[in-house]
Structure formats: C-alpha cells, structure tokens
Amino acid sequence: MDTLLRPWLPDDAPIILAAAGEPMMDRQFTSPIDSLATAEDWIATLTARRAGDTAYSFAVLDEGVPVGNVAVSSVERRHLTGWVSYWTREGARGKGLATKACRAVSEFAFAELGLFRLELAHRLDNAASCRVALGAGFQPEGVERARLLYDGVRYDTETHARLATD
Fold this sequence. Notes:
It is a single chain. This protein is of the alpha+beta class. The chain has a domain of 115 residues: Gcn5-related N-acetyltransferase (GNAT) (Aminopeptidase, 3-Layer(aba) Sandwich). 29% of the residues lie in helices and 36% in strands. The chain has 4 helices and 7 strands. The chain has a 7-stranded mixed beta sheet with strand order 1-2-3-4-5-7-6, sandwiched between helices. Strand 3 and strand 4 form a beta hairpin. Helix 1 packs across helix 2 and helix 3 packs across helix 4. The radius of gyration is 15 Å and the shape is globular. InterPro entries: Acyl_CoA_acyltransferase, GNAT_dom, Ribosomal_N-acetyltransferase. It comes from Lentzea miocenica.
C-alpha cells in the first residue's frame, strides 16, 4: 500500500478541486467542492473521520501523484463491517489503479482494522465500476432497485461484498 495509497494531505487541495470539476465527479462528494477552501475542508473531514475510527480514505497514487480516492467508511465495530468506495480522475482510468487500490484498501481493512465484511455498490449502468469490484474480489449479492437519485433520475445499484475469508 505504501507506493499506491497514502492519506490525503492538506497540500492535495488543488488536486481535489480539479477532480471535482471533471464531468460527473460532483457525485463523488457529499457537498460541492468549488474552491480551495471547500477542498481543504473535504480533506480535513477525512482526517477527522480517520481519527474517529469511522472512515479511512486514501489518495490513489500514479507515479507519486494523487489521481483518485479509495476509502473504507461506515466502519462498524460490533459487526466488523465497512463500506468501500473509489473513484479515479479521467486521465487515470483504464490503468487498473482502481482495482489495485480497492484490493489494497480491503487488505488494510481486514489486517489493520480487523473488519470481516466489506460492501460496495455501483450503478447497474457503470460496467467499469463493476469490473473494479469483481477484480478486487467483491462478489455480487443483488440489485437494489431505484437506490440512487441523480438529477431527478433513479438508478438501480448492484451490491457486492468481500469477506476476510474470501
């Protein structure tokens, strides 16, 4: 994980701002990233969540430069579960980085956090995200109908899971 992933740093704010400006990337952030200040706030929130043991987000690196994000969030200690998410910038897609990062964050969650079950979901019309999930060892578990709402349109999602014993 050392050369592929690292925690987000305050100096990464310009990269986050640029990523948020790419087409459809606004869906990857819970609130708009439209300035360096909001990008810095996003990074500060990730740092606070790590300190609170609720989420662990990492910059995905390509030749040392952050080009994406991978996270295990909704860390739940009673049932030892977490939720995995990932995105990469346009220029980094198709290189297998998201799959490698998803595998690496899963191994981190199992080995370092002691989690047992990880889940993720993707829109049914996002074949690339499905390939990432499958390539990272996440097995399909089912379809959630009309799960997401973007711009007034509902989308079905497919849920996947990976167990520490897989």
